[in-house]
Each structure stands twice: as C-alpha cells, then as structure tokens.
Amino acid sequence: MSRPQPIKFNIEKKLIKSNGEKALGRVGTIETMHGIINTPAFVTVGTKATVKALTPEMVKDLGADVVLANTYHLYLQPGDPLIKKAGGLQGFMNWHGPTMTDSGGFQVFSLGAAYGKNISKITGDDSITGKNGAMAEAEGRLRKIPLIAEAPEELAPKIATIDEMGVTFKSHIDGSMHYITPRRSIEIQHNIGADIIFAFDECTSPNEPFAYQREALDRTHRWAKQSLEYHHSQKNSEKQALFGIIQGGRFEDLRKESAEIIGAMDFDGYGIGGSFAKEDMSTAVQWVNNLLPEEKPRHLLGIGEPEDLIMAIENGCDLFDCVAPTRNARSGTFYTKNGKINIGNAKFVEDLTPIDDSCKCYTCKNYSRAYMSHLFKSKEMLAGTLGSIHNLYFIIHMVKDLRQSILDGNFYEISSAFLEKYKAGNK
Amino acid sequence: MSRPQPIKFNIEKKLIKSNGEKALGRVGTIETMHGIINTPAFVTVGTKATVKALTPEMVKDLGADVVLANTYHLYLQPGDPLIKKAGGLQGFMNWHGPTMTDSGGFQVFSLGAAYGKNISKITGDDSITGKNGAMAEAEGRLRKIPLIAEAPEELAPKIATIDEMGVTFKSHIDGSMHYITPRRSIEIQHNIGADIIFAFDECTSPNEPFAYQREALDRTHRWAKQSLEYHHSQKNSEKQALFGIIQGGRFEDLRKESAEIIGAMDFDGYGIGGSFAKEDMSTAVQWVNNLLPEEKPRHLLGIGEPEDLIMAIENGCDLFDCVAPTRNARSGTFYTKNGKINIGNAKFVEDLTPIDDSCKCYTCKNYSRAYMSHLFKSKEMLAGTLGSIHNLYFIIHMVKDLRQSILDGNFYEISSAFLEKYKAGNK
To answer: Whole-angstrom Cα distance, residue B425 to residue B337?
Structure first.
C-alpha cells in the first residue's frame, strides 16, 4: 500500500536545447495542502516567521508562491510548541500560502557556533567541526578545531559539537545549550507545520578535504535515513512533505554517491546543500540532477543571484531560496535589468525616475530613486520595505519570466538577452 | 474683493453640555484641494515625508485623513527644491490625500540647537535663547545662555540664535549653518506644497518667565504678520492655506492677547503652540478658543495621548498631531481600551489573543500578542509596522468615535466611559 502523498509534483514541459536535445530544466507545479507552487519558483525567505520588513499581503501581491522559515531560529525563539499552539507557521505569521522550513543544520553550525566561547568538552567525540558564524554566510568556511577542555582564548572553540547522534550547540541568543538529532529536527518541524520540511544534515564547506567530506557525508546519509524513518512513523507525513539533502562538497564521486543514496530513499523531494565556489556550482548541480529521480522536485538551497538562478533553472532545479534580495534591499542595493545599483550613490539624489523603468512593482510604479535615496539617507524604515518589495519582485518575476520562456520555447534567447544587459550594467 | 479660499471649513454640529449650554467643541469638515478632513481629526505625522514604517496605502486604510510633514527636516534633507520638482510633498511621498507642514519653528530650536557646539557669535543680538535638543521633546525647556564668542566647552551654546529677522541654526545632520526668516519658512513651505502650512513662530517653554514670554510673543506676532503678508503676495495662497500660531506660555493675559492678535489676522486657521504642563493645557486651550474666530479651524500642535485628545475635542480643537502613537508602537507600547500595554512584558510571550480584542485594525484581526512579542524580541522590522498600524488605528478611530458621539449627542457618556476603563487599566 503506498503512503498518502502530501504534495503532488507535475512536470508540464521540459527544456529543449537549441540542438534539439533535452536539457535538465523543466516547468511544473507542486500542489501542497495550502496552494500551488509554480516551478521553477524563487522561494521567499521568512527566517523568523516574517519576511523582513513586509506584511504577508505584500509578499503575496509581489507574486511569491511560497515562504521558507528557519527551524533553528524558530526553535530558539519563540519555540516550536508555541507555533504549534498558534495553528502552525501559517497561523502564527498570517501567511496562508505554501510554506517550507529548512532543517536548521546550516544555522546550527554557523550561528550556534558564532556565540560559543570557552565551551568545554561536551561529548566523547574527539573531532569537532567549528564554523565562524560571523564569516559563515560570506564564506561558508568550516574550520576544524582540536577539542580542548579548557580552551585558551585565541583557540576558543566557536563551535558546535558533532557526535554520531546529533549536534550540541550553544544558542546565539542566550548561550543556553541545545542538542539536536535528526529525529528532534523533524519533531520541531512537525510542530512548526510547514508544507515542505527538510532532513537534518551536516553542511560542510567546499574547503574541507576529502577525508572529512567522506566522513560527514556518511553521517548525513545516516541522518537522512533516521529523519525519513521518524517522519514516516508520524501522522504528519500525510500532510507535510520531507525533502532529503544531497551533500558531498566539491567532489564528483561524493556528490554522485549522495544523489544516488538520497535519491533512492523515499523522500518527497530533494535539496542540494553545501556552499559552492561560484564556478563549481553548475557542474555540481549537473552531477546531482542527472542522477536524482526526475519525477520529484529539487531545491537548490541558498541560491538567489540572477546569474545563479538562470544556471539552476537550466540545470533542472525547481526551487531556490536566498536572503540576498531582501538583505541587499536593506543595504540599498537594488537589482535592475542593467545590473545592480546602490541607492547611496550621489547621482541618485535628484533622480526622479524609478529604480528600474521597466519594472512593474509597487515601488517602481509609485516612487523615485530620489525618494528612495532620501529614505536611506534618513534611515527611514520604509526604505527597507520599498526596497525589499522591488528586489523580491525583480527576482520572483525574473524566475516567472524564465518559466514562461521554457513554455514558450525561447529560454536560451530570453536568458542570454537578460544576462548580456545585466552583466554589462554590473561592470 | 475677497481672495480665493484654499480651504473651506464647515461646522456641522456643536457640542452641547449636559446642562444645555454650548461647549466649545464642534464637528465639521475641512475641504482641501486634495480631499476632505473630517474634524475633529487626528493628523498622522510623517515628519520626513514618510509615516514611519508604513506605506501611504496602509495609512489610508487605517483611516487617516491627513498627513503632517516637517518643514525643518525636509528643508535640510532632501531639500525643498527637489520636493517641488517631484510634484510637491504628495507626489514625492505618494500620499494623495490632504497634507500639512508645520513651520519648522519648534525643530529649529530643538534640533538645530542639539547639534551646535562652540558656535561663535553669529549676529549682533546679545540675547540668545538656547534649547537643549536632547531634552526638548520631553520637557520643552528653553535655556538662556549668554553669548560668548569663544564658548568654553561646558557653556558650549547648544543654541539657535534669534534676531529680529529670524533664526540662525546649525543643521543637526552636517553642522552647516542656516538662517530662517518668516518669509523663508513660507517660501520653503510653498515649495513643499502642502494643503495647510503654518506661520513661523518662536516656540517657548512654559518655564520661561513673563518678561521673556512677552518679548518672544511680540516677535512671534511680528513674524506672523510677515508670514501672512508674504504668503498673500504669492499665487500659492490660492491653493495652500496658512495657519497662524498662538503662543504665550502659561500666562493668561499673553495667551488671550495672542488669540486676539493672531485671531484678528486673515489666516485660514490657527495653531495653538508651545509646550504645556499637562494640568495647564485644558485651561490654556479654553482661554484661546473662547477668543479665536469660531468659523476657522484650530490645530492643537503636538498633542496625541487619549486623555488629551478628549480634552482638546471638548474644548473646540479641530486638529491635533503627535508622534506618540508611532513612537510608542516602535518601542512596543500599545494602546488598548484597558490602558497601555508593553509587549516586552513576559506575560504576553504565549498570549494568543490580539493586542485589543475589540479593535478592528489589520494587526488585531490577523496577529496575536505572542506574535508581536516574538517580532519585538527578534528585532524584526515588521514589529514597528504592525504596532504602528494598531496604535494609529486606535487613536484615529478613537477621535472618529468621539466625532460621531458629538453628532449623536452622547459625547460626555462615551468619553467618560472610555476614560474610566482606560485610566483603570493604566493604574
């Protein structure tokens, strides 16, 4: 007897190369309990159960199909039992469309790590992988630090401690200690109640050597199995879909092995994780997507710059999430068809044209670069709101346009024309 | 030949006391070029051409009729010529309803003053009135400081310098020196282009002695005449209304004299200015409103707490503005019918009821105290947005309800019942 399917993925059309061969890319839909995600789709990030500076109505109006919240953050604050009591993530944050939560693996290593100082020995394991939280998002760099019971200040292990069963980490909020196992991550994600959730994994850096990647990958695969088994033992698996995560760093054999092992497990979809060097990303995505089952959706985790989205769509990714559009917006960096602009530049002070004169977002229809410049100079909160609306609209609609171009059979023309203008402007 | 009227004030009904006597309060409408203000009306403050944390659509949706921006702030950043080029305040900030600008007098003294250090002698005038900007909004306290060419650090005149013609002050943004005269203030306000503008005045503290109030009031009256004469010499007077400002501190004879002198000038309406001790406000408003022409609107400047609004409405004020609702919101203090609450209180962490269960605002309809508590703890920008929506809705609709109660003939019952609950909750 097959189990009930919490989501349904339909492929509508596949991307065809100019030489007539099938490419990896495809257009589809993911039906969830709370609505349809038209893929490929940019997934809007709402880390702490809020898309920063926007109401859910704004997020919907700018065209977002789905919001991704963060398990690590919500577990620590306000806590998943409260979210469950509030009717789950959707009820708590007043977003009534599809939702996702990542497993918290990345943040456990990066943020749990950032806070810790002078943590003494917690587990019997003598290998510790630490991540400098401050650098993590910029570099995705993992460091190995020898375990020292009384760490000298300069070696203070800014760490999360891994053992076979899970990860011990220190809260970046209050310094309290926490232990997350694959099962615990799924329990938390069941409480939060998103439509799509992720297995708990170890997110390594591309700079880790093969031996460590090998060890971490085996653990990630064991954890994937534990996540899946626990999930399927629970009623929640009837309404929440679980995605497994492919890791393996920059090593072809590990990435392929991971795609085969995770791809063979009965997940509802797949995430491709790990930090990539920009030039490796396309190759690594191809290794993986050539092996993953075609009939299930694939999420490239943490990717969101225009050129990366084009690569990901061409190579068969259906979902991608990234904080870049909203983070850039809050620092005054806006996407335009002619590349990025920074509104702090003096030339915009008296510029009464919109951020992008071809953009149809609320911000571009109603406000000038001069007004945006004024709001940023005045440190007004509306700056972040209007900027986030523009950047999210730009990225979401860029993906929607590429989706349409696959349906129309002109993906390569549309994406090349976009990139030519966009890259020329960024020079 | 009478001059064209930029606004039209209609009184619909007057407040009647329980003993049958007429009170000062009244219900009316102000017709402007950009829409109608139903009075009494709370005027939403948008100091720097933005109501903090809200889009203009949100401001409109929560029931605001009119937005007040700040001449001093906009003159310094982004500058009034740019706003004129952008189609005036309405076009620049995308608010299409009625607008006002204050004259900048208050801010010239408080903020221009806050920045200055080691300002050497600027004018030949040997009397300087300085205001400690940091304390100004809290206390409205003015200090007199002897003019010293090379001021020692501890006497560093945190000052604006008044002469007969105007005020010299230092920008709180970049330290640049500026000189504002009554005519200059009107020119700036013509560029900004609001529907209702204010004459340039000297805003004194209630703590100033009689002699200084006398001197400052005479100057304010001369400046009022200059403001009015310049305004009427310009085409803009056909579409922008000019309000004169009553001053006089806490002295009955000065307040009455000011009401008579300013009230006799051909202003389109009147502002009541100056900082009041809370217990004096009602008395001072009565002195003034008993003498001002009945057929013109009156704006009580800088007032916005619920109990003060009831007093002001009862005593014949038609307009009032205050930053309190939005400022309180950003610090987590919310109005409820049972008094103010601070969302930082631990008891709200798991409280799944709305801020005020009888409130019909967007925030109360869609979010819980627990969610608001989470947003504040997480320092999320949406906290300020949702909080401001609630507080502004609360205050604006409180005034709307009181307006309706005058029409219905039960103002005293409604306002007493409100105050009883509200004050009990605040204890």
So the answer is: 8
Which amino acid is residue A268, in one-letter code?
Answer: D
> What are the pLDDT digits (tens) for B212-236?
999 999 999 999 999 999 999 999 9
CB neighbour list of residue B213: distance below 8 Å, 6 or more residues apart: B204, B247, B248, B249, B251, B254
Of the candidates A208, A197, A207, which has an alpha carbon nearest to the alpha carbon of residue A245?
Answer: A197
Tokens describing residue B322:
């205050």
Q: Which of B47, B374, B389 to mutate to test the interface with A (most CBs of A within 10 A)?
A: B374
CA atoms within a 13 Å half-sphere pointing along the CA-CB vector of A341: 19
Q: Cα separation of A154 and B164, whole Å?
A: 64
Taking CA atoms, A415 is separated from A307, A316, A325, A397, B44, in Å, by 9, 15, 19, 13, 46
Distance CA B73, CA B66 (A): 19
Long-range own/partner contacts, residues B308-311 (CB < 8 A, 24 or more apart): B308/B278, B308/B281, B309/B42, B309/B395, B309/B398, B309/B399, B309/B402, B310/B402, B310/B415, B310/B418, B310/B419, B311/B281, B311/B282, B311/B285
Rounded Cα distance between A294 and A24, Å, is 9
Q: Which chain B residue is nearest to residue A369, measuring alpha carbons?
A: B92
Chain B interface, best mutation among A47, A52, A55, by max B CB count within 10 A: A55
Q: Which residues of chain B have a CB within 8 Å of the CB of A53?
A: 381-382, 385
Six-digit token string for B332: 């987590």
pLDDT in tens, B28-57: 999 999 999 999 999 999 999 999 999 999
Tell me the CB-side half-sphere exposure of residue B240, using CA atoms within 13 A: 29
Q: Which helix (H) or strand (E) holds A144?
A: strand A142-144
Q: Is A96 helix (H, G, I), strand (E, B) or coil?
A: coil
Domains of chain A, first to last: 9-107+175-322 (3.20.20.105), 333-422 (no CATH)
The complex's ipTM works out to: 0.90
Say which residue the tokens 């979809």 belong to. A269
Chain B contact set for A371 (CB, 8 A): 49, 86, 92-94
Q: Full-prediction pTM beyond 0.95? A: no
Return the closest-CA partner of residue A330 out of A395, A369, A388, A378: A388
Are the beta carbons of A374 and B55 separated by less than 8 Å?
no
CA–CA gap between residue B163 and residue B152 (Å, rounded): 23
Per-residue confidence (pLDDT) for residue B183, from 0 to 100: 97
* Tokens read off for B155: 């006497």
Question: Model confidence over B83-131: pLDDT tens digits?
Answer: 999 999 999 999 999 999 998 877 776 665 443 332 222 222 222 222 2
Predicted local confidence at residue A110, as pLDDT: 65
Q: What is the pLDDT of residues A157-196, one digit of tens each?
A: 456 788 889 988 888 888 888 999 999 999 999 999 999 9
- Exposure string over A119-145, b if 16+ CB within 10 A, otherwise e: beebbeeeebbbbbbeebeeebebbee
Q: Which helix (H) or strand (E) holds A260?
A: helix A252-264
List the beta bridge partners of residue A32: A35
Q: What is the structure's pLDDT at A425?
A: 87
